[in-house]
Amino acid sequence: MKKESLWNATVILILASLVAITLTPLALMFRTSLKPAGTLTRNFGELKLTAETGTGSVVRLRLGQDLRKFSTLSFLIRGTLYRGTFEVIFYDMQGNWCAADSSPYLKGGIGNQWRRFTLPLQNLPIASINPGFPEKIAEVLIVRAQDPENPITLKEIKLTAKKFSLANYADVLISASFGRYLFNSALIAIIITLGNLVFCTLAGYAFARKDFPFKNLLFMLILASVIIPAQVLIIPIFLVMENIGWLNSYLALIIPSLVQPFGIFLMKQYISSLPTSYEDQARVDGATERQILFKIIFPLSRPALAIV
Q1: Residue 140 to residues 98, 114, 306: CA-CA distances in angstroms?
Q2: CA of 45: how far to CAs of 138, 161, 213, 294, 297, in Å?
């Protein structure tokens, strides 16, 4: 009993390990897709900026960043007038802009001492940036003192990225014809799958149950074609599709894949292992070959069809 329990535990552990190995890449890909920027191994936490003009009543910075992917803008600021205020303005390439006043976020205003200013970007009306596009890319950041006679100086300017964001999914769904891509993939996959189920079973049944000239030779050719790498067939198939005039069409993607040699081999071997008594009895009862195929062979071949 202990040996059996140990064996069951070992099998469960192996299966769990295989599941974990299979799902880990998917989980890592999903985690990476939620990151605003960076890669799996490189975290993108902050973006440090350098002002084009160090002092003056207006400080201009080149940005070129998607504001959806950042949570806060912060910097140290110093001026000459006590309780001075300023505004932060983001511009896109078309001149559209959104702005925020410093008063709610920097109590007491600026003075001759360095003060930390932090602006939550979710409070900005970033919808006015790049209207009509999902990306809210601000090309220029301007910090302008309300009083033109109050020179300001900035340092330690940085944008803090969000920990997680769905902006990447929005970009895929909106910026490209994702619906069309999904429809094309689903349509081609469904037709090819159904075609392989039907045609591989028909061919496998013929090789397993029927006698016809050059049967063995044809089956050996099918087996030989299995060892041909798919990459070798790419250029010949392309040339054939070009000569037929099927380029840039569904037919060029569907027809070459409607029947797979391995599927014919698999169905032939499986149908050969089925007892012929069912078919003989059906023929005695007056069943036609089509009825035998679709009412006996197909139902009995469901395990092999699941693999095909």
Answers
A1: 11, 23, 57
A2: 18, 5, 70, 61, 60
Query: Which sign, positive or negative, has the C-alpha torsion 177, 181, 186, 191?
Result: positive
Q: Are 305 and 204 in contact (CB under 8 A)?
A: no
pLDDT in tens, 247-259: 989 999 999 999 9
- Name the helix (H) or strand (E) containing 9: helix 2-33
Helices 261-273 and 215-226 cross at an angle (nearest 10°) of 130
Helix then strand count (H, E) for the chain reads 11, 8
pLDDT (tens digit per residue) in 134-178: 888 999 999 988 877 778 888 888 888 887 777 778 777 776 788
- In this structure, the chain runs to a length of 308
Distance of alpha carbon 24 from alpha carbon 30, whole angstroms: 10
Take residue 259 and report the two structure tokens written for it: 């029947």
Instruction: State the pTM of this model.
Output: 0.60
